[in-house]
Amino acid sequence: MDFKKGILFVGVFLLAFVLNAQDATDVTFEMKLSKSKLGLNERIRVDFIMNKDGDNFNPPDFLGFKVLMGPSQSISSSWVNGVRSYSKSYSYTLAPTARGKFTIKQATIVIDGQVYKSLPQDVEVTAAVDKPSDQMTADDIADENLHLVAEVSKNDPYMNEAITVVYKLYVSPSISVSNYQPLDNPKYNNFWSQDIKVTSLNAKNGTYKGKPYRYVVLKRVVLYPQKSGKLEIEPLSLDVTVDVPTNKRDFFGGRVYAQTNKTVSAGNRTIDVKPLPLTNQPENFNGAVGDFDFSVTTSKTSLNASESLQATVEVSGKGNLKLFKLPELDLPSSLEVYEPEFTEGVRTTLGGMQGKVSNSYTVVPAFRGKYPLPPIAFSFFNPKTGTYTTLNSDEIVINVLEGPNNAASISTNPSATNKQSVTASNNQFNFIKLNPNLSTIGDTYFFRSNRFYLLFFLPLICIPIAILFRKKRDEIANDVVGNKIKKANRLARKYLSKAKKELGNKDSFYIALEKALHNYLKAKLKIETSEFTKDKISELLLKKQVNQETVDGFLALLKNCEAARYSPFSNVQMQQDYEKASEVISLIDKQL
């Protein structure tokens, strides 16, 4: 029994020792500033925060500042899942007394008999600002702490050289964003463009003009300029809901936030596109810009006449693979060549297009002999080196082993070498058989046969069926309401058929859905709705006696189509939007 008590005593002692050691290592004491840069007519708040109660707090002298308020003391303590959370702070409100850079020195406090010191921090005081921060509204604060930026990889590319534009929304830690909607998507005139899908909207730490910010990537696009000179990239605009903290506190001491909506824009960007140099430009240059490999291959080099082979012209590498024409294969006239089959294996990343494109020719020789495929050249411009490069394929000899001789190849007349003679086979013509080998079809007569009576009475049987059919058709025609419903449902299925096929593929589904909605209004109202704003579309529908609820449903679908480009949408949401679109089109059609 004494042994068990000893074990228990040692266990309690060790537990107390570990807890005391943990408390000693977890003590924190730090200084936090409301801002690191302010105008001479602004104020700054300084908080000294500790996670365990202490004594003998000794503040710094605040050289360069005048203490307007403080120290004010606040304590918070809570228990969450059996874990105690404690915080105590001493707060000061200061006003600068002069311009310049000042250091708020360290403060000290004694916790459990040990002295803890905060780290000193620098503060820059500038000239007086037009609107001090303590007088700024929520809109003013949002303007200063919210920025939409279009980051362009290169401002002076060559024509047909890839550049990337990444749209980032920078948000200061002092505010938060609860929602955003795109207002205006840029149209990349004079550029070949392709969006790079943003799979998830994850906030990351970064800096904006030297200050710490959080940012999220909203849109990425690869552009290939199609003309030289100064080209404009239109801005992306967003409507953002911003939560701005105020100096007010609620009943429980929590900070009160003011909500405001701000429109932010990435601004126009000008790209100075350089033309491709004309000096040393090869004659066969066909607009390829990048870094490529070139080859001409055949599936076989030995075969018999009337057999076929595949000759492939292929360009691979990184560059504008979709924007130039492949060189054509030059074959002897004795070879029969079919139209080439074009294949493309290109993927577009932030670095531009990469992969390969090829033309595959089916070649059929008609005569025995050896046929050389002469080399062909492919030229491209490399923007990294600023020079043109020409690649030549190897000569390939096709050996036709068995088959008829080409009479032109054994002619003594040199001018006849390109002519082809046709060799006739021994069984070119056959006699037509003269014996018809006919047989009788029977001695039965049609008159008074079963078929005779069936065809005689069939019209009499069809008359009552035709009367019933006509009566049923008239009933359907007189059902005005039912016909309208059927017609509206057919119309909805017609315009939404493509969107239904794309269910599960977010981008393609919402593009097809948006096009279906616009095409429907274009067909019904005889207008180009893509040129109208949502307010204009609403006004037109209301004039046509469509009720407000149906109009709101139609506009909500258009907003979802726009939001889907930047926000994740589930398959359930897509199915709901498809069903809603079918319902709205049916309602509008019946009301119109």
TrEMBL record:
Transmembrane region(s): 452-469
Name the chain's protein. BatD family protein
Asked if the keyword Cell inner membrane belongs to this entry, the reply reads no
Which organism is the protein's source? Maribacter chungangensis
According to the record, the signal peptide region is 1-21
The UniProt keywords, alphabetically, are:
Membrane, Signal, Transmembrane, Transmembrane helix
InterPro entries in the cross-refs: BatD
